[in-house]
Amino acid sequence: MKLTDAEKAMLDGAQGKAKQKAMDLLVRYGEALGAERLVDVTNVASTFNAGSPAMKPYAEKGMDAVFSKFNLDSDEVVETPQVEVYTCQLIHGIDTQNAHVTGVAEEGVNRQKTAERFFGGRGVAMFNTCTPYQVGNVPVKGEHCAWMESSAVVYCNSVLGARTNTEGRESTGAASITGKIPYWGYHVPENRLGTHLVDVEVDVDSMMDWGLLGYYVGEIVEEDIPVLAGIRNVPSMIKLKHFGAASASSGGVEMYHIPGVTPEADTVEDAFGSRKPRERFKYGKAERKIAYDNLNSSAKDTAVDFVMLGCPHNTVEQVWTIARLLDGRKLSPNTQLWVFTPRALRDAAELAGYGDMIRKAGGHLMSDTCPAIGRIVPEGTKVVATDSAKQAHYLPAMLKTQTWFGTVEDCVNAALTGQWRGGLS
Ligand code: F3S
Question: Are the CB atoms for 44 and 147 separated by under 8 Å?
Fold first, then answer.
């Protein structure tokens, strides 16, 4: 890989041991990918957590040992420098303010709090969410980034028009202190063109509709780039984050175009550049039903133990919607409700009184984690209901739960009655 003089000097240790290790990692990573050079990044979304039991032996030696091992892949412990570029903490496994609800042990919570102070002191913005774009990390079109987390990556590329591959903890750790990442994949303009044309023949309007469309499209295109033609209703940010998360979980979609909506394609022709679509398929009533049936394939018992809302993390508007649906009502004694939002938005929702409305009904307003990432559901949970295609995809495989997928109204109704009565209208 060709390096600039400044990059070579970093690799030779001119800026200290940690940056030397980081540069070595990036060069090895870039060479494995066939990248010819590095590119400057100005925005990193990574994870700097230390709460999980696997990290305990390292955390006992100090947070430098955690950073060295988990963010730089180094057995040698090096001192953690300040981050070089704007870097934020993504979602992780522990909501430190609701550990009593999730049953996370106090020692894990304390490790996580220590990590937050330590890495915050090194310049990491502690957003603790998979939707950093909701709380102040909003890269612009063309900006080179190094982000982790599939739902964040697909939003970054498709909706913001910024450029990132789906990075890992080590590569983003290295990027945070060097401001570099290998130039390949979605950093390269021609790799951002559409591959599959999707003729959308039904109205796609509600959040559930967008989840179903994303889930269906992801299964077909896998890791390629769908272009949605025929979208008549301009989707909100809530719907786009839901669509992207669904397509990234049934497939591995990291980028899509909706001509006239997303920033890199005003028209279908723009989306494909000089190329022809490699494949073309339709999304109509039958395909919508297939997606719905696939998402609900794990569920048969209608008695619901647990309702999860907020994947990807909810906007304040979504929390408000849930609070209004619950207002003055009580959850079934057999059902728990956890609502997730970014930590900064939780504060905003609390200020507005939505947290109180949710708690009065018997639910919890939470942040920093989610059931799939934290691998946490209330004890004894067998049947889950969620409005998230991503959670409906992962929970049956990860936690062996039956999982119903439906609208937010279906889910709140299940939390209030203890029964699943959702369906496809
Ligand atoms: Fe975010 Fe967890 Fe969903 S990481 S996208 S809330 S699975």
Answer: yes
Cα of 310 to ligand 1 centre, how many Å? 8
Give the position, in ligand 1's atom list, of the atom nearest the Cα of 151.
Answer: 5
- Average pLDDT, integer, range 123-132: 98
Alpha-carbon dihedral 25, 27, 32, 36, rounded to 10 degrees: 160
Cα distance between residue 158 and residue 42, in whole Å? 18
How much of the chain, in percent, has pLDDT values that exceed 70? Answer: 100
Ligand 1 centroid – CA 148 distance (Å): 12
Q: Please state the pTM of the whole predicted model.
A: 0.98
Which residue in 418, 422, 396, 392 sits closest to 408, CA to CA? 422
Name the strand (E) or helix (H) holding 68: none
The two structure tokens encoding residue 398: 């990860």
| Domains along the sequence of the chain with CATH | 5-189 (3.30.499), 193-294 (no CATH), 296-417 (3.30.499.10)
Ligand 1 geometric centre to CA of 71 (Å): 21
* pLDDT of 358 above 90: yes
Span 143-169, average pLDDT: 98
State pLDDT tens for residues 38-52: 999 999 999 999 999
